[in-house]
Amino acid sequence: MTDKNQKENIDELSFEEAIAGLTDIVDKIEQGQIPLQESLDQYEKGMALIKRCRTILQQAEQRIEKITKEQEGQKE
Amino acid sequence: MVKIALEEKLPSRLIVRGEISDWKHHSSGHCYFSLKDAGGVLPSVMWASKFRNVKFSPEDGMEVLATGYVDVYTVGGKYQFYADKVEPAGVGALQLAFEQMVKKLKEEGLFDEAHKKSLPPYPMQIAMLTSESGAAAHDIADSIHSRWPCARLFLYPVPVQGEGSAEKIASALRDLNRRRKSLNIDVAIVARGGGSLEDLWAFNEEVVARAIFDSNIPVISAVGHEVDTTIADLVADARASTPTKAGVVAVPDVQDVSAQLAGFRQRLTTQANTKATAAKQDLDIVLAGALFKNPASLVQNAGQQLDELSSELAETMRSMLLEARRRLSAGYEQTVKIEPHRLLGKKTVELSNWHNRINVGANQAINNCRFQLAAQANRLTAMNPKSVLQRGYSITTSKETGFVVKTADDVNIGDLLITELSNEVLIESKVTKK
What we know:
The structure holds 2 protein chains of 2 kinds.
Chain A: H1 2-7, H2 15-31, H3 36-58, E1 64-66
Chain B: H1 2-9, E1 14-25, E2 31-37, E3 40-46, H2 48-51, E4 63-73, E5 78-88, H3 93-108, E6 125-130, H4 135-147, E7 152-157, H5 165-178, H6 180-183, E8 187-192, H7 206-214, E9 219-223, H8 231-235, E10 238-239, H9 243-250, H10 254-288, H11 290-293, H12 296-337, H13 340-383, H14 385-388, E11 395-398, E12 416-420, E13 426-430
Parallel strand pairs in B: 3-5, 6-7, 6-8, 8-9, 9-10
Antiparallel strand pairs in B: 1-2, 1-4, 2-3, 4-5, 11-12, 12-13
Helix pairs in contact in B: 4-9, 5-7
């Protein structure tokens, strides 16, 4: 599971995915059973995820977009 | 005549209170029933066009107030009450209709907790289904923009009261669900400001309830004020008592989430530092150890071990050699005791004797045989028929047959004869006379 996550581009994660990954990493590191090198790698990854979350939070949309009903057969 | 009399005596508009009995909703849409009270029974009819406006379901036994007029049903020759409006006697029609719908949908399980979806914790695409002109949309937008500005907010304008509004609301919700791929709405808010039961009626309609129930997108219902509860509120996955509160229900507070992120950062950093420090301490301990201080000791220890082993080995070899020598010595002693050289001498002589004896014996045997052989050879020679030839005798054979001629009958005159004389000389002759 962790390997698959590492292959995913962090920049493409949704907020929910990023924060879930972050929670995982912090829990794992705090449990203390990881060897030194791996815990340093996880630290780096954790920091990257935090950065991603901050980036998402910082975007601010102040407008309201309008949706209208699609006509039959209209392409999306 | 009766008709005219009635028209004169009775007011053109009557409100009758009574209990419904024999209620029949004909396939034509017209309703036929009776209104009863202690005093009597009034046959009644309500045309489909009027009944359409009745929001609740009249049933036998229900106490109602019916507004209409009395007239004669000329075909049957009886008077009837023609109801234009009918209302439940105790509570309002709408209220009753509401209670009936709640009961019906509750029994079907539309309000069950088990069917409610959980709201997404960090929604990024939020849709509002509400009136474009009303205040609800702005209230929600303000709330969301201040709490969770990173989300995209959409407005799907719908009429929130009046004819056909329920159908439009339901249709909008189904539309959003259909366009999941292109729009990808995380949560939908169905909203309307405050109003009377009539104003809010669209949100009590069955079609809206079913659209909310069927929605794969989680739905928050924010209809009316604190005191109002609509069926939409009961079916929805979450409800808010006002549009502003809907913003609180729908999204987290960005400050809280930022603080959470800061917390994670703190924990990560602490852990990394702790681990690095611990690792360094471990390293320091090792470096401070005796081995690192005096690496030569490792070699020296090994050297000493080697020496000890070598000594041991040498010692072992020595004692083994000593033992081997001792054994050899003992063996030698034993062997010498046997006086092998003397023994050898004795045996050699014996062997010599035997050798001689064999030789002698063998020679004698051979000589014997020679004598015998000679004797027999002499005898054989003496018997050799051909030695007779030396004495003048000869052997005559027929040239033709090769047989020896013994008598005159063996030959004929003219035959050729071969005669063997001594020394294997052969002469040939012819028979001339017998």
